[in-house]
Amino acid sequence: MQTLSTTLLIIGGGPGGYVTAIRAGQLGIPTILVEGQSLGGTCLNIGCIPSKALIHVAEQFHQTRHHSQQSALGITVSAPTLDIGKSVEWKDGIVDRLTTGVAALLKKNKVQVIQGWAKVVDGKTVVVGDTRIICEHLVLATGSKSVNLPILPIGGPIISSTEALAPTSVPKRLIVVGGGYIGLELGIAYRKLGADVSVVEAQERILPAYDAELTQPVHDELKKLGVKLYLRHSVQGFDSSANTLQVSDPNGDTLNLETDQVMVAVGRKPNTQGWNLEALNLDMNGASIKIDNRCQTSMSNVYAIGDLSGEPMLAHRAMAQGEMVAELISGKSREFNPTAIAAVCFTDPELVVVGKTPNDAKAAGLDCIVSNFPFTANGRAMTLESKSGFVRVVARRDNHVIVGWQAVGVGVSELSTAFAQSLEMGARLEDIGGTIHAHPTLGEAVQEAALRALGHALHL
User: What are residue 121's phi and psi, to 5 degrees?
Assistant: First the structure.
């Protein structure tokens, strides 16, 4: 067995791991990155990027079908057909370009990448195949994996989001188990691709992690698209001989829902199994590794970042943590203490939450002004054939410091950066209201929400 020595060893080449490695390389830290599958992790390969690509395909196909039937824009086209194989090939091309780019960046910054599955020996030693690696600092960045339901084992007609992102055909009928962001993003995409889609959710409404006012436009769009919702329904099992999913309704009665495929999307959990994490005997926080505000675990010089360290399980959180850890190892003084981390749901319409919602503010004992500005009064939204949704601002009543932004509507994911920046910079309502926003843009609704909170919206 060969032995390698390095200053920094990273287990996991997802967004958190590869950003840690790139930044460490920039800082001149000898670094080895171990990845068992493809660089880029879940996000680039079977998550964020491919799902947005498939969503784009679905939207283009949906719009073309719309224009072939009736269009207020004066566009007339023949009924479109879909070559899903070519769509997947296009999606895979994007993934390949991004993962190839990550590999090039790692090489550029002199990071040694070892392909294989890591097994932890102790806080300074990891084995990968017939190679032993000894390090001064260890970063754990193994990410998360889909939560499976024992009564719905993946295989045949039962699929996870991974299989849903690489279809060989579009099923006639699809049931999505789970009404969270993963289930709804892909459920809406499949509906737009032509499948009859149903969603089974145990809670009383979709997207239960978000407040009802924010999710109502998404609920309305699901109805408009013809997606069937089975809320407050629990899954009992699947009859493969009859291709039926058994669910229990709120009264306890059993329904048999016929389908061609069932996609299980009931959440994700930290990936703590299969690489001998137990050897470190780290303090845990439920299913995730407990960390402090420097991503330090209970063992000296061992760090955990990204999904492995719990919620929020977001790629941009992992990246920011990884960059910080690399700088800490280089001797810089840093801590992970963001004012807010944006959460974006790429449903139709899109949904963004940054900072405190009205309910969060109330729970924190803050007396806040809450103001909405609807996209029905925004010219740019009208030109995009989308008037549903709004921008909402939450600000302290005493000093007008903004503590939260939320939005639901077409393209609002692109507002998330402005939302986060305003919170990080400690902006007040007057700062946003007094900033000239370009016209016509969706961003004008941000200014108008702030102005309305101050009592003088201009276009409402």
Answer: -100, -50
pLDDT in tens, 189-242: 999 999 999 999 999 999 999 999 999 999 999 999 999 999 999 999 999 999
Is the Cβ–Cβ distance between 198 and 228 less than 8 Å?
yes
SS3 263: strand
- Residue 29 CA to residue 402 CA, distance in Å, equals 39
What dihedral do alpha carbons 2, 8, 9, 10 form, nearest 10°?
Answer: -160
| CA 77 – CA 185 distance, rounded (Å) | 27
439 is catalytic: yes
Secondary structure class of 452 (helix, strand, coil)? helix
Q: What is the pTM of this model?
A: 0.95
Task: Please report, to the nearest 10 degrees, the dihedral formed by the alpha carbons of residues 383, 385, 388, 391 taken in order.
Answer: -30
Place of tokens 């960390």: 291
CB atoms within 10 A of CB 223: 10
448 touches 459 (CB < 8 A): yes
Q: Give the span between the Cα atoms of 345 and 60, in whole angstroms.
A: 19
* pLDDT for residue 1 is more than 90: no
| Whether 178 contacts 148, CB under 8 Å | no
Distance, in Å, from the CA atom of 301 to the CA atom of 280, rounded to the nearest integer, reads 12
DSSP state of 343: E
How far apart CA 117 and CA 126 sit, in angstroms, is 10
DSSP state of 148: P
State residue 7 phi and psi, 5-degree precision. Answer: -75, -45
Tell me how far the alpha carbon of residue 63 is from its chain's centroid.
Answer: 25
Please tell me which residue in 56, 233, 316, 439 is annotated as part of the active site: 439
Distance CA 443, CA 446 (A): 5
Could you give the maximum distance between any two Cα atoms of the chain, in Å? 72
